Amino acid sequence: MKLLMKNIIYIFLVVVLTIGTITVHAQKLPKAAYEVLKPLEDSLKQASYDMVNPDDEFIFRFKADSFFTRGFVNALRVPYSFYYPFDSLASVSKVYSADSSFRIFTWEVMKDFTYYRQKGAIQMNTADGSLKIIPLFDASDFAANPIDSVRDAKNWIGAVYYKLIEKTYNNKKYYTLLGSDGNGARSKKKWMDVLTFDEQGKPKFGGRYFQYQNDELKPKQPAYRFCLEYKKEAQVRLSYDPDLDRIIFDHLYSEEMTPDLRYTLVPYGDYEGFVWKNGIWYHTATPFDNAPIKNDYVPKSLENDMKRKGEKQKQLMIPKQTQPAPKQAQPFPKEKINDDNTN
After folding, report:
1. b/e burial code for range 307-324 (CB count within 10 A of at least 16 → b)
2. How much is the pTM?
3. What are the distances in angstroms from CA 341 to CA 6, 68, 237, 273, 338?
4. Neighbour tally for 29: CB within 10 Å
5. In this predicted structure, what is the pLDDT of residue 53?
6. How confident is the model over 244-303, as pLDDT tens digits?
7. β-strand 93-96 against 102-112: which pairing, if any?
8. Is the pLDDT of residue 336 over 70?
9. d(CA 257, CA 276)
10. DSSP state, 151?
């Protein structure tokens, strides 16, 4: 009887808390705002697809991007739009600060397979629901050395962000951003940048937050942001593992023994990482050592890799005569941008 009463009380509390949570979210996004934002979002779906569709001519992608940008800003002007997720706009990445003080939208437009441009904006969370937005202008084309300085929103080194890690040091917040960049015809890039806000609330990207020894594969110190450039067809990991509280990335090597040619770099098979300490990301060549984990722990950053290797091993164990005939190749589906981004 006591057990039954405990279960009833537990279910009651869950229901009350759930209703309370729904009510809080409803208060943040008024019903009237939702009814305006939903059709506005629907009107942007096609443009958000067209601006990244590689089968279209670049002029159509650029026109779609222009249409999308105007319509998206118009939607953000709706009061309390900060609480609207825009989930159906799959080509646009959305990352939020843990304190819900802002979110960042980023996306990429391709002219052809040799030229990519990133677009973006920071939307601040305002008490009265009004729009406060900071456009980000990609200055990568005009940067002789994109890692050499702190940059503002008008001179941003563009990336499509898929992860934001919030840290605090000396009562100041630091937002580490992980992002991807289509870059060019022969190579891609992964970026790791640190965002802060000055006394006027203006964003600053980069700084002396990366401690590592110079080698032939990493950006030369002093580096104000970290970059991995690698072969276009390779799958390279740069991700954050919350259980380890560390950044994990692939150790690279050159297929042609020419590491200065970044388009020859591919994963070697082991990993490096960064550990946050006293306001600095310190490099570690052994990111899984001395970590607060159990013996049987599988890092989240490697789960998909291990699954793929396991499936491959199963295929190798099937006798050749019983292996199924190869299937007709299917179009590769677009991946949703997330923390497991390995392109």
Report:
1. eeeeeeeeeeeeeeeeee
2. 0.80
3. 44, 24, 7, 16, 6
4. 19
5. 86
6. 999 999 999 999 999 999 999 999 999 999 999 999 999 999 999 876 654 445 555 566
7. antiparallel
8. no
9. 32
10. B
The Cα 197–Cα 158 span in angstroms is: 18
pLDDT digits (tens, 9 = 90+) for 29-76: 999 999 999 999 999 999 999 998 888 788 999 999 999 999 999 999
Distance CA 90, CA 76 (A): 17
Q: What burial class does residue 79 get, using C-beta atoms within 10 Å of its C-beta: 0-12 exposed, 13-18 middle, 19+ buried? A: middle
CB 259 within 8 A of CB 253: yes
Please state, in angstroms and rounded to a whole number, the distance separating the CA atoms of residues 72 and 40. 8
Q: Which residues pair with 99 in a beta bridge?
A: none
Please report, for the chain, the start and end positions of each structural domain, with discontinuous segments joined by +: 138-308
Contact 226, 191 (CB under 8 A): yes
- The full 3-state SS of 308-337, as one line of letters, equals HHHHHHHHHHCCHHHCCCCCCCCCCCCCCC
Averaged pLDDT for residues 132-152 = 96
Residues 140-143: contacts with CB within 8 Å, 24+ apart? 140/181, 141/117
Tokens encoding 121: 């904006």
The dihedral sign for the CA sequence 89, 94, 98, 101: negative
Residue at token pair 């670049």? 58
pLDDT given at position 21 = 32
Cross-strand bridge partners of residue 64: none
What is the spatial distance between Cα 186 and Cα 179, in angstroms, rounded to a whole number? 18
Helix and strand element counts for the chain (H, E): 4, 14
Q: Are strands 238-241 and 226-231 parallel, antiparallel or unpaired?
A: unpaired
Q: Are 78 and 36 in contact (CB under 8 A)?
A: yes
